[in-house]
Amino acid sequence: MARTAIERLAEAIGYPDRIPDGALAVTLRVDDAEVLASVTGDRLVLSQRLTDDAGKLPTLAGYAAGRMLREEAVLTYGDGAAFLWQDASADAGGQELVRLFESFMDSCDWWRDRVAERRDEGAAAGMPLAEMMIRP
Q: Could you tell me what percentage of the chain is helix, strand and coil, using 3-state DSSP and rounding each to the nearest 5?
């Protein structure tokens, strides 16, 4: 049986835990955080929950436009939480899977730092969203 994209990702990054044979969705523990890896159609999708605090969304959304120019990860909101996700072809080779994982984890670090800053500053600090948005 052919290995799934998740099994190949785990092997490419040297993930220490066993991935179930044929897995199409698993939660990877990385740097004290959880990364959901799932195969959807012909795409391998990595995602991480950033925060369940809807009050942080306006500030996070204000960062999103600028981050789209720097990274391939995308900020989204669903199920009452802000998530970051990034995808690649499920047929990607080992090097491409490593690049996907590394760039996604770098993006997660940046976004988690922004969530932590907002927690430290409190809800009243920062610029109003209207002043931070980049408008077309």
A: 40, 25, 30
